[in-house]
Amino acid sequence: MVNNEKVRLMTKLAVYEKEEGREDMRTSNYFRSDYVRHEIIKTILITTVGFLLLLSLVILANLNAIIDNVLKMNYPVVGWTILGAYLILVVFYAVLTGIIYRIRYMYSHGRLARYYRILSRVRRIEEREERQRDEEEEWGE
Question: Is residue 57 predicted with pLDDT exceeding 70?
Fold first, then answer.
């Protein structure tokens, strides 16, 4: 006989595992601070690469003006301006990443807690069914 409650719960578990479960399981391998730090480091690396690409495009676009003014440019001011823009960009994205991934971790942990509660309900149902089968076999002899 099919237990409708068990089927319904197992369907919920399967849908969760297929959609959000993989990411949540991967997230659960980390402490929150380690998870957020890992994502911030990835963001800093990606931001650095993006900034260098953007800087190279700006330099290439203005190459004629740069070559014309090569002797007139104030290199320390240009360097500090580029460094300042880079630092502002990196700090902004690092803070934003920290906030976003703390929130994602919190929601992920909540979904995992719900998953494990449903999983324990399925186990209790299976144990109850096992006891009933054992009792039926005992009475059937």
Answer: yes
pLDDT tens per residue, range 63-81: 998 888 888 888 999 999 9
- CA angle in degrees (0–180, nearest 5) for 108-116-122: 145
User: Are the beta carbons of 138 and 18 closer than 8 angstroms?
Assistant: no
Contacts of residue 108, defined as CB under 8 A and 6 or more positions apart, other chains included, come to: 20, 23, 24, 27, 28
Residues 6+ apart with CB under 8 A from 121: 9
> How would DSSP label each residue in 74-141?
-HHHHHHHHHHHHHHHHHHHHHHHHHHHHHHHHHHHHHHHHHHHHHHHHHHHHHHHHHHHHHHHHHH-
Cβ–Cβ under 8 Å, residues 90 and 44: yes
DSSP one-letter string for 58-79 = HHHHTHHHHHHTTTT--HHHHH
Lowest average pLDDT, out of 48-62, 85-99, 105-119, goes to: 105-119
Q: In this predicted model, what pLDDT tens digit does every residue of 96-110 receive, in sequence order?
A: 999 999 999 999 999
Distance of CA 89 to the CA centre of its chain: 21
